Amino acid sequence: MTENTVSAMLDRVGESADRLGLPLYSTHFELVSTCQLNQLASYGGMPVRYRHWSFGKLFGHYQTAYDFRQSRIYEMVINHDPAYAFLDRTMEPTRTLVVLAHVLAHVAYFRSHAAFAHTASDEVSVMVEHRRAMESYQRRYGRQTLEAFVDAALVMADFTAESVRNRSVGEEPDDLLGFLALYAPGLDAWQRHILTMLHQEARYFWPQQLTKVANEGYATFWHRRILSGLRLTADEVLAMAKTNAELVQVTPPQLNPYRLGYLLVQQAQMVDGERGMLRVAKELFDTGLVREYLTADAVRISGLQVSRTDPAKVEPEKNWTEVKQSLLADLDHAGLPRLTVDRKTSLNTGCLQLIHCHTGRDLDYPMLTQALTLVAEQIWRGEVVITTKYRGMAHRLRHDGETVRDEVIGEAMT
Amino acid sequence: MRHRSDTAVGYGVSTMTQFQRFTVGAGDPDPVNVLASDQRRHREKIEQAIRHNLADMVAEEHVLVTRGERRFATRIEHLKECRIRYDAHQGTWASLGWPEGQNRPEGGPEGESSGRGVGGGGAEAAFGEEETPVLLEDLSQAVFSYLALPDLDPERMAKGEGGTGALGEVGRKGTRWAKRQTLWANLTKNAYLGQPRINDLAPEDLRFWQWSDAPQPGGGAVVMALMDTSGSMGNFEKYLAKSFFFWTAEFLRQLYPLVDLVFIAHDVRAREVDEDTFFHRGASGGTVSSSAYLLAYQILEERYAQEQYNAYVFHFSDGGNLTSDNPTALASAMRLQERVNLFGYGEIHDTDRSPSQLYQALHKQGRRAVLLRSKEDVLGALVEFFGAADPRFETALKEKKEG
């Protein structure tokens, strides 16, 4: 594919999108190699991130998946102003049409949805700055020190937000990582800076994590509409059908966000018409979309069902509410546990008090112990306690500076 | 609008399209690999982890089933990124699957969701999120760096196969033309006839290099793999034996390319089989170990002269030899081990029952006999039989086992 073929296709797709009323925004498309695209994917779509071995690991996964022809990435879109989209140069031209329409819808979603109202529009350069800062810290403090600290900090990087709203200056942070960056005793300035940088990056990605299904659903819905408004050649029709089929393909028991999202957006349009589409485009997150539009009918059509680690099978028709509840539990908070901090006690006693808000699912206990050790040794540098529930009992895990001890503090209320 | 020059990705000349809403760039044809350091570091961590988990990984099932694949996926605990997550193995909560969805795999339906970026081609990654693709070569290197063929007698030279020896002699027939010798033959012929010059090349002047069967400097060696395939050898027992022989074969092929391998499978009768049959076919029946020892001895006598070959024999069994065969087995084992450089006997139990008479007798005489109880013991057996090249490793292995 060359720039000219892509430009010509963009003209066609853009025209059709205009006719259908999809808002379009200035976007830069860049043709890259498959390998580069995999690199971008391991960086979460960004051209540059700070140095960390986990990106190398992720890249290995993508590359292997591609080598074994198990999955392939065609595009990466960055939520940025102007938007950036990276396309695989070696993609078949007929497929490109579908991918371009898909990208335009993603960009529209980023611009119109409330989730992204507060994300930085210049995140690419922010992340370039982060890389530079991290590199200078690595030179000054050595790779081992930096890596050990970042490894630990990443444990806490999942807990950066309750809301997608931005904090105003001077406001107390409402999240765990923000609290640690400000108040963890015994951290050097550079370490606080790293926590702040990771916080910024995590906050940038957080809305994307909350709208995975909705975003893909919206983009799939729109690319289908855009393409059906085009005069297509036989080859293009075939390629479109193939791409669409691949996109919504199911590999049980994985949940395909394209398929689920497409189904829900279709439902929204069928049930609520234009108003439904507007809600999808502007305000509904993954959980909201499921809550609003996963009806009994939708469950039946989707073929969604609950599977358990115990063999008892459940009839999907009879238990669509269970399906819905389970799906909501999976999507809630982007599938991550909720952790909060007892600020007062932590600051007064010097012992970090973490609280896991148990919502019916236990934590991975061995990992929790490891995580606690990392946080105690690298971040808080002192006593750390977490209260959670495990197998119906309330537990308190305490890292006293040397080892982790687990005590049962009573029967959990259900 | 932001500055694009801030990014490390170079943008080519852009083509403007309608209303200048979209620009298209061709990308840098030769971009800087920004991920190189991360990839390098990740590789370093894999290598470290392999060394640390060697005992577990040697007996990894994937290693055996991916023969020829050269790459397998495995879980390396050290490379698992520590995160606070929900327990994926709890049976009390429901998860979602699509039709014909089976049980939740490790990692869960959403897995360690890495796809923060938008996009992606639908299907998930090839290997599980926490599985690391490891090259068989990497693992082999780590394993083999500790091993060597013990008691290899360099004096016992074997004839190399035709074509592997040195080019020494010239003759009148052959495939590789010796130019200078041909001209010399022509010159001497003409000189003899009175005209000392090179002229009139005739067929009788042609000279060719001769391949000679030169002795191999590494010494000839033959390794015999004896395996009990009786009904009492369960899957686990067979699996451990296969795992051991897999590494033995890999090890010998790479470090001693001219080593002969002989595979003998036995139940009540022993037969020589090819490698594929040996590794992949099961059998049934009782166990008469002496049959294998006798056959091994016979093959040695027929094909591998004692003064020419270093011989190594390894036998794996569950120790369930027929009681009536025990005296014969012991006698033939003794005779066999007199004949060879090394006789190794491995006995596999997954229970705590006491080892067989054969094991006890061999053990008493200070012969190399090992008991294998778990997967981790495979590496121990390799080290026991092939000698740890690095004594520190042996102690480290023991410490790990005790700890």
Describe the structure.
The complex is a heterodimer of chains A (414) and B (403). Chain A has 414 residues and is of the alpha/beta class. Helix content of chain A is 56%, strand content 12%. Chain A has helices spanning 3-20, 34-42, 53-67, 93-112, 123-141, 143-156, 176-183, 189-210, 212-228, 234-247, 257-282, 286-293, 296-302, 320-331, 343-349, 365-380; strands at 27-32, 75-78, 83-88, 305-307, 339-341, 352-356, 384-390, 393-399, 404-411. In chain A, helix 5 (123-141) crosses helix 6. The longest helix of chain A is centred in the middle third of the chain and has 26 residues, at 257-282. The mean pLDDT of chain A is 89. Chain B is 34% helix and 18% strand. Chain B has 403 residues and is α/β, with parallel strands linked by helices. Among the domains of chain B are: 167-211, no CATH class; 218-402, Rossmann fold (3-Layer(aba) Sandwich), CATH 3.40.50.410. In chain B, helix 6 (235-255) links the parallel strand 10 (220-228) and strand 11. The model of chain B is unreliable at 1-18 and 98-128 (pLDDT under 50). Chain B has a 6-stranded mixed beta sheet with strand order 12-11-10-13-14-15, sandwiched between helices. Chain B has helices at 36-52, 54-58, 61-65, 136-144, 179-192, 235-255, 275-280, 289-303, 326-339, 357-364, 377-386, 391-402, and strands at 15-16, 22-25, 71-75, 95-97, 118-119, 131-135, 167-171, 176-177, 208-211, 220-228, 260-266, 270-273, 309-317, 342-348, 368-372. At the A-B interface, helix 1, strand 1, helix 2, helix 3 and strand 2 of A face strand 1, strand 2, helix 1, strand 4 and strand 5 of B. Strand 2 of chain A pairs antiparallel with strand 5 (118-119) of chain B, so a sheet runs across the interface.
